[in-house]
Write a structure and sequence with these properties.
3-stranded antiparallel sheet; Arc Repressor Mutant, subunit A; mainly alpha; 5 helices; 48% helix
């Protein structure tokens, strides 16, 4: 008997580790962690060291379509010095 939740596997969002996201974005794992720490990409913090990332939410944040992320980014830009590393703005 079916459980009443059609396509349950399809409806579930997949969360990536920092290493997996780094591979997808073709950046280093430390860059992914820095972007999360600075509030430029959204993450779910499981513990102080374990982070998980929703790929769709990260893409929205990097595209600038997430207004909440955009305001965090603007605040970070104003308080940060010129960063010579890769920028996703």
């Amino acid at each position: 008997m079916k459980d009443g939740h059609p396509n349950r596997e399809e409806a579930r969002d997949e969360f990536l580790t920092a290493r997996q996201l780094a591979e997808v974005l073709q950046v280093s794992e430390s860059t992914v962690r820095r972007l999360a720490r600075d509030g430029r990409i959204p993450c779910v913090r499981l513990t102080s060291r374990l982070l998980r990332f929703n790929l769709k939410a990260v893409y929205r944040a990097l595209d600038g379509s997430d207004t909440n992320s955009r305001s965090k980014r603007r605040h970070t830009e104003e308080s940060a010095q010129d960063d010579a590393q890769l920028s996703f703005l």
